[in-house]
Design goal:
Length: 413
């Protein structure tokens, strides 16, 4: 029997060991790389990253794209109230709503964003809220931030949301009727928020935002587009949901999904924030993203997540839109200018009449119908307008009647 010659093999043992070690280390590094880039939790839209469109500087799709962005050192200043365009402005209805629909805005931020992001929220839209709170983990006189007892980082956002609402519940519950959460890269048109909320009562257990479909039966509201809770919803969240095992108890998780689960657990309704013709009002991207047709792949995560079918082009967005996300600090000033200053001469807008107040019964009915009926097409809008002008809406127009009823029904209570 031939004895295998092990001599040379024995001699190669150290090399085999090095090769093995090298391979193991390389394999481990590769696995870590793969898991850190693709194996995210299923609720994270980033899992679609590989199918995302190439990023366009003016239309970011992730927070990372805005990481380095900051705004001007110096405030951009103000126009004087007596200047021509402003002197003729009539803001009496907006002022009435400022008194009647009180909104506390709280902005999720962190120490490294105080100066680069949150400050520009403070200098632009946040001043229009009845009360604004910057929620951080460090006090900072620059933005009067609240130091919540939480650690920073993405895996503590859920803890921060819970602590923020607890803080509000303990210190500011009577300062407002509605409580709006926004990020430090969210832009909010506060007057339009009040206009939408006018129909509802702060005692309704309801919340609104950009409604997403997965993970929660009634859907949940995108965190980035911001969401607004009624006073009753805040009470239920802090008193019933946070202590309940139905609500995630640790710090981790996607804060918007977790909030959505808690809201459902304590029977807070996911409201329909679309306008009377079915156009959206809360948006998880900048206006450009929603306005320009076909610039994202059909596989883009938002198209799979959105509760209502999104429309492209000008149909996308309500004339009374409320929020946009991934807005750079500089862009906050641009939006402020476009929304509150730039005016086409000779066109004077009149405020549409205030809508009727809704009862809880009206809201539930409308919502149930809204779930099963698609948004009316532009063609149907026109037909509906004609038929309603004639004072009769045919059966084939059932769904449009539903949307219009939302603003037209007398409250039952
Ligand atoms: C401002 O608008 C309100 C409501 O539309 C109207 O009642 C009021 O007369 C207007 N004020 C002026 C000065 O035009």
């Amino acid at each position: 029997m031939k004895i295998p010659d092990l001599g040379p093999r024995n001699g190669s043992h150290p090399r085999t060991f090095i090769t093995l070690l090298f391979g193991t280390v390389l394999g481990f590094m590769f696995a870590t790389f793969i898991s850190s880039t693709t194996l995210r939790q299923p609720w994270m839209p980033e899992s679609y990253r590989q199918r995302e469109p190439p990023s366009i500087v003016s239309d970011p799709h992730t927070g990372n794209e805005l990481r380095g962005a900051s705004g001007p050192e110096q405030d951009v200043g103000q126009h004087a109230a007596h200047e021509e365009a402003h002197a003729h402005e009539n803001a009496s209805i907006a002022q009435q709503l400022h008194r009647e629909v009180r909104v506390l805005c709280w902005v999720m931020t962190n120490p490294s964003n105080h100066k680069s992001k949150a400050l520009h929220v403070k200098r632009t839209w946040a001043g229009r809220c009845n009360k604004v709170l910057f929620m951080s983990s460090v006090e900072d006189p620059l933005i009067d931030s609240v130091a919540l007892p939480v650690s920073e980082g993405r895996n503590n956002l859920w803890a921060k949301t819970k602590e923020a609402f607890k803080y509000i519940y303990q210190n500011h519950l009577d300062d407002a009727d509605w409580f709006m959460k926004a990020d430090d890269d969210t832009y909010v048109v506060v007057e339009n928020l009040r206009y939408m909320l006018y129909s509802y009562s702060p005692s309704h257990p309801i919340y609104f935002g950009c409604r997403f479909k997965p993970f929660v039966k009634q859907g949940y509201m995108s965190g980035g587009a911001g969401y607004v809770l009624s006073k009753e919803a805040v009470k239920r969240f802090v008193e019933d949901a946070i202590p309940s095992p139905l609500c995630r108890q640790d710090s981790d998780g996607a804060e918007d999904v977790e909030l959505g689960k808690c809201m459902e657990a304590v029977k807070v309704l996911a409201g329909d924030s679309r306008d009377t013709v079915g156009r959206g009002r809360f948006f998880p991207f900048v206006p450009e993203h929603h306005l320009i047709p076909n610039h994202v792949d059909k596989d883009f995560w938002y198209l799979k997540y959105t509760y209502y079918k999104p429309d492209e082009g000008l149909e996308c967005c309500s004339d009374n839109a409320i929020s946009f996300h991934y807005v750079s600090p500089n862009q906050m000033y641009v939006l402020d200018y476009l929304i509150y200053h730039l005016r086409p001469y000779g066109i004077v807008a009149h405020s549409q009449p205030l809508p009727k107040k809704l009862s809880l019964g009206d809201i539930v009915r409308v919502d149930d119908l809204g779930k099963t009926t698609p948004k009316p097409s532009a063609q149907q809008h026109r037909r509906y307008k004609v038929s309603s002008n004639r004072g009769k809406a045919g059966n084939e127009m059932q769904e449009e009647v539903t949307f219009s009823d939302m603003k037209a029904k007398e409250p039952n209570t």
